[in-house]
């Protein structure tokens, strides 16, 4: 399988498994990842997803030049032929963590940008290199990167097409944490487990408010936040949360 999709309790793990081509994403693997992501979205037992790459050399080197990019060129005037992904067209309000091992280039960097949290191994290299091939970062890179880091730094990375190492990515706020390679997945799992202990409806609503709010005025965003908060106030999880607080015990949330 080009995409290994496993479930560990409330955690879904998506592993890009094409090490022979440094986990480059061909059309088959993109479709498989989308299918797995939809299952993750719709499974009420899953709360957090982790995306990583097989092996220790690469998270992914992005779109497969001999397959995906040629497909995109051949279908550039036919809307709807490219699968919906978390980069464009597939909304998932559950948190996603990118566990970046090794090379993370082009479309793979855009895949990581579409995640909410990014943890990198100290041998990671991250770059939006598309301008070196005559295209732009067209899977959301031109939109998400300037929202994630300062505009001038985003312009530098996109216009120059020059990758940066994990420490530089951490310095500019592109990744949350840098760890040794052997600690990458344990750290990602630990963070995911912490999120799984929180109220799932509240976490999902918070993500929705954050992402939708980026395209709203402050006033509109506050109204959206209020509406989501009012919804959460009527849930069983909120009742459990305040009951557990009063009883000085850990809450047991059910996503209801």
Give a short synopsis of this structure:
By secondary structure, the chain is α/β, with parallel strands linked by helices.
Give an account of the 3D structure.
By secondary structure, the chain is α/β, with parallel strands linked by helices. It has two domains: 3-196, 2-enoyl-CoA Hydratase, Chain A, domain 1 (Alpha-Beta Complex); 200-247, Orthogonal Bundle (Lyase 2-enoyl-coa Hydratase, Chain  A, domain 2). 43% of the residues lie in helices and 16% in strands. It has helices spanning 27-42, 68-74, 107-113, 141-148, 151-160, 166-171, 184-196, 200-213, 218-233, 236-247; strands at 3-8, 11-16, 48-53, 58-60, 96-100, 103-105, 117-121, 125-127, 164-165, 177-179. The strands form two sheets. The protein has a six-stranded mixed sheet with strand order 1-2-3-5-7-10, sandwiched between helices. Strands 4-6-8-9 form a four-stranded mixed sheet. Helix 3 packs across helix 4 (141-148) and helix 4 (141-148) runs antiparallel to helix 5 (151-160). The two termini are 34 Å apart.
How are the SSEs ordered, and which strands pair?
Layout: E1 3-8, E2 11-16, H1 27-42, E3 48-53, E4 58-60, H2 68-74, E5 96-100, E6 103-105, H3 107-113, E7 117-121, E8 125-127, H4 141-148, H5 151-160, E9 164-165, H6 166-171, E10 177-179, H7 184-196, H8 200-213, H9 218-233, H10 236-247
Parallel strand pairs: 2-3, 3-5, 4-6, 5-7, 6-8, 7-10
Antiparallel strand pairs: 1-2, 8-9
């Amino acid at each position: 399988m080009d995409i290994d999709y496993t479930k560990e309790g409330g955690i879904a793990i998506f592993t890009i498994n094409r090490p022979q081509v440094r986990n480059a994403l061909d059309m088959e693997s993109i479709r498989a990842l989308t299918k797995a992501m939809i299952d993750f979205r719709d499974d009420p037992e899953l709360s957090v997803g982790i995306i990583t790459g097989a092996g220790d050399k690469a998270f992914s080197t992005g779109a497969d030049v001999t397959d995906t990019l040629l497909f995109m060129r051949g279908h550039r005037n036919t809307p709807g032929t490219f699968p919906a992904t978390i980069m464009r067209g597939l909304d998932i309000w559950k948190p996603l963590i990118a566990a970046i091992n090794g090379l993370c280039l082009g479309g793979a960097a855009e895949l990581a940008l579409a995640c909410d949290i990014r943890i990198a191994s100290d041998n990671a290299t991250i770059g939006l290199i598309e301008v070196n091939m005559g295209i732009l970062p067209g899977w959301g890179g031109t939109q998400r990167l300037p929202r994630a880091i300062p505009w001038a730094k985003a312009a530098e990375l996109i216009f120059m097409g020059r990758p940066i190492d994990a420490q530089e990515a951490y310095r500019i706020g592109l990744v949350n944490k840098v760890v040794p390679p052997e600690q990458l997945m344990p750290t990602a799992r630990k963070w995911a487990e912490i999120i799984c202990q929180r109220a799932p409806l509240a976490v999902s609503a918070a993500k929705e408010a954050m992402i939708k709010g980026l395209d709203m005025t402050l006033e509109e965003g506050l109204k959206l936040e209020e509406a989501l908060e009012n919804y959460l106030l009527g849930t069983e999880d909120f009742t459990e949360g305040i009951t557990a607080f009063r009883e000085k015990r850990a809450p047991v949330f059910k996503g209801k």
